[in-house]
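the two lines:
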Amino acid sequence: MFEAAELGHRISKSEFDKEEPELHTKLLKVQRDLRETSIPVIVIVSGVEGAGKGEVVNRLNEWLDTRGIETSAFWDESDEERERPAHWRFWRRLPSRGTIGIMFGSWYTAPIINFVYGDIDFPEYERQLQRITRFEHMLSEDNTLIVKFWFHMSAKDQRKKLEKENKNKKYSPLLKKFSKRYKEFFQASEHAIRMTDLGVSPWHVVEATDRRYRDITVGRILLDALEKKLKQHEKSGTRSSAKKTSPKKLNPDEISILDHVDINKTISKKDYNKQLKKYQRELHKLTWAARQNKRSSISVFEGWDAAGKGGAIRRMTAGMDARLYKAISVAAPTDEERAHHYLWRFWRHLPRAGYVTIYDRSWYGRVLVERVENFAREVEWERAYHEINEFEEQLHEHGIIICKYWVHISPEEQLRRFQEREKTPWKLHKITEEDWRNRDKWEAYELAINDMVTHTSTEYAPWTLVPGNDKRLARVEILKTACQRLEEALS
Amino acid sequence: MFEAAELGHRISKSEFDKEEPELHTKLLKVQRDLRETSIPVIVIVSGVEGAGKGEVVNRLNEWLDTRGIETSAFWDESDEERERPAHWRFWRRLPSRGTIGIMFGSWYTAPIINFVYGDIDFPEYERQLQRITRFEHMLSEDNTLIVKFWFHMSAKDQRKKLEKENKNKKYSPLLKKFSKRYKEFFQASEHAIRMTDLGVSPWHVVEATDRRYRDITVGRILLDALEKKLKQHEKSGTRSSAKKTSPKKLNPDEISILDHVDINKTISKKDYNKQLKKYQRELHKLTWAARQNKRSSISVFEGWDAAGKGGAIRRMTAGMDARLYKAISVAAPTDEERAHHYLWRFWRHLPRAGYVTIYDRSWYGRVLVERVENFAREVEWERAYHEINEFEEQLHEHGIIICKYWVHISPEEQLRRFQEREKTPWKLHKITEEDWRNRDKWEAYELAINDMVTHTSTEYAPWTLVPGNDKRLARVEILKTACQRLEEALS
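prediction for all of em together
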C-alpha cells in the first residue's frame, strides 16, 4: 500500500515556482465559492511521524484564506473530553458549513497508537475502525467533503530526519518515541487505511520525503476534490428541500405499538403523593450514588403536545440536587447549530462523568416533526434511525445510562388540555396555532411514532411508553422507571 | 445584615395559593417581553447551605418558560476550566440576550469557601471581591440585569434541617461539611455581600426558613426587577445606535506615538533569511518549553490594512509545532457571539495550559474600527480601555504571556500594496472596497491607535509597535519579540 510512496517523487524548485502561484490562486477561488454553500470540508492530515504534517498544515494556512479555516490538533485529551464518549472531542471541532476544518491528527490517531502499544486488541481495533467508517459515511451523507491525507516516509528516511532534528536540537518528543516502532506503526496504519478507504472519503497516500512534491501534491488533490464537490453541488441545485408530500398515515387496520399502552390507567391522589415522595427520595440518593461512581445518565422526553412532559420533568428535577442535572429545552437551533449535522447540538450537551442531562424533546425530532412536516427528506429521516442508534450505542458504551420516555395521551384528552390551557392565564403561553395544526396530523404522527419505537428501542436504550391521560400516574411511572434503570446500572 | 432575615417571616398556605398563580402568570409575561430585547438576565442563587437553593432553582424552572432559561451549577471545576483564568467558566455560561441564566453558585462561591478554609488571606479575598464588582459593573453596562439572592437561615434552623435530612437519609455532603463552620461562613458572607452590594446589582437577602415565604419573595423580587428593567429599556428606545458623527482626527501639530516608529528600517534579504531561521528555531524550542511548564501565551495582531499581519503570523506559526497553537481569524461574529458581551468571543478561545492562541485582529476592534466607524457609542469604546485592561490583567495573573503587535506602515506603502494586490491573482481576495474606504479615515485611525496604545500598553501586556514598510524586517522583529517575551517569562 505504501510502495507507491517510496518511489522518490520529487519536484524541482523551478517546477514548484511555476505551479505554486496558480494552485494558490485556484484554491482561494474554490474556497470563496465554498463559502456560499452548505458544504463543510474536513481535511485530515495524518501519517508517519516526521513526515512534516505540521509543515503541511502551515502550507494550507498560507494558501487558503484563514478566515474560513480552523485547524484542530488532537492529542492530549482534557478531562471534559475523557468524561464523554471518545468521539465527543471530534464532534465539538467539526467545521461548519462553508468552512474547512483541518484535522491534525484525528479519529485515526488514538486507535492506531492504542493498538500499536497493545492497549486494545485486534478485534477492538477493527471495531473502532468500523465505527470511523460509519462516522465518515454519516458526515458525507450530510454533504461533508472529507479529504484524507496519509504522509508516508520510509524507515530509512525517518531515521535520517530524526538525526537531522537531533543535530538541530529540535525538540520532537513524538518522533523519537514513535520511530522506534516504525514497523508496528507501518502495519497498523496499513490496516487502518485499507479498512477506511471509502468511496466517500478515500485516502491519499502521499510520499513526504521531498517537501515540494508533498505540498504540491496536497494542493492538487485538495483543489481537485473541492472542484468536484462544488460541481456536484451546483448540479444538484441548492440543496433540494423536501418535496411537500402529504405524510403517510398509519393503516387503520394495523395495530400500533401505542395501542398497547393502557392509556386510562389512573392513580389515586393519595397514592400519588406517597409514591412521588418515595421515588423522588430514591432518585435523590441514586443520582448522588451515580455521581460518586462517575456514571452519567440522560433522559429523553418525547410525547404529544400537552402530554405533560414539562410537568413530569419538573417532578423529576425536584428529586435531584440541582448541581447534578442540566435540562435542555430543545427549541429552534442557533445559527452555529444549523451550520452542523443535526446531531451536533445534542452531542454538545452530553453530561460530564456523574451528571445528568434531561432533553425536553431531542434528536427524535428528526423522525417525528421533521418527517411529518417534510422538513427532512425521506432518505434523511430514514437513515436517521441508524444514525441515532449509532449515537446512542456510543453513549451506552461509554457507560451513560439512557432513558427514553414517550408520554402518550388520547386525542380527546389532548383536546381537553388545549381548552384548559386557553382558559388558564399561566398556561396560555403553552398553546399556539401550531399545536392546533399538529392535531390534524395525529395519524401521521402515530405512524412516525410507531416506526420510531420499532427502529430505536434497543436493549441499552429502550423506549418507555408512558400512559399519560392521568398526569399523576405518568409522573410516577417515569420516576419509577428512572430509579429502576439507575439502580440496575449501579448494582 | 442578616438580622432582617431571622425574623421568622412566614406565608400561610392560603396566602400562597392566592398569590402564586398571579405571580406565575406575570413572570411568564415579562419573560415573553424579555425575549424581544437585548437584555441578558443573570439570577444568582446563593446563600447558606441547607436554605433550599436547589428548591428555588426548581421553582423558577416551574414558573418560567424553560425555553428561555439555562441553569448552571458551578462546583467541581474541569481541567479545561482550571487551566484558564478563574472567570472563564463563568464567561462560558453567561446567558445570551433575551434569556435568563440561573447561576446556582456563582463567582461568589470560590472566594468565600477559599477564605473560610484559609486558602486565601483577607487582602486576596478583598481583591477577588473587587474583581467581581468590576465584572458585574461591566455586564450591567452591557445591558445585563443581575438579580442576586442570598438565602439566609439561622444556625439553629440549619442544624434542624441537617437533623431532618439525616433522618430522611438524604445525602447532603456539603450541608454536613459547611454547617460545622456556620460562624466563619456567616462572617465571610456578610463581608462579601457588603462589598458587592452595588446599585447595579444589589443583593436581596431572603429569609429561607419558610419555603412559601422564600419562594414568593423570590418571585416578587424577580418580577419587580424584570419589570423595571423592561420599562427602562422601553424608554431608552431600541438600544440607541451610535450617532453618526464624523470621527475625530489627530491634531496635526500633535506628536503621535506612531511617529516614533522608525518605519523605514530595513533588513537585507540575507540577514532576513538567517534571522528568520534563527528565531523560528528558538520559538520552536521555547513553545515546547512553555508547554512543559504549562505556560500559555497569546499573541494579538493588529495593524493597518495590508500591513502584513497575515504574512507575519505565518512566519510565526511556521516556527511552532502545529499541535501547540491555534490561530483565530476575527471576522463577523456568529449570532451566538453577537448575543453576548463583545469580549465573550475572545474569552471563548483562550488557550489551555501550555498552548498558544494567535488572534488575527482582536478585542481591540472595539477601540479601533468600532470607534472610527461609529459602530460603538462613545461611552462604549471609552470604557473599553478599562474593560480590556481588566481582561488582560486576569490573563496575566493566570500566568498567560501576552504579546501585542501593531504593525505600522505609511499610507504610501499601503497604497503600493493595495495596487499590488489588485494585480496579483492570489492576493486579489484580500482587497475590497472597504479597504479603499478605510484609507480615507487614516487620520481618525491614527488618533484611535494613539489612544489605544496610551491606554492599554501595560507592563504585563505592552504593545510592540512594529515598523512594517519592510515586511521582512517586521517579521523578524515580531519573532524576536515573541522569543524574548517567552524567554523572560520562562526563566
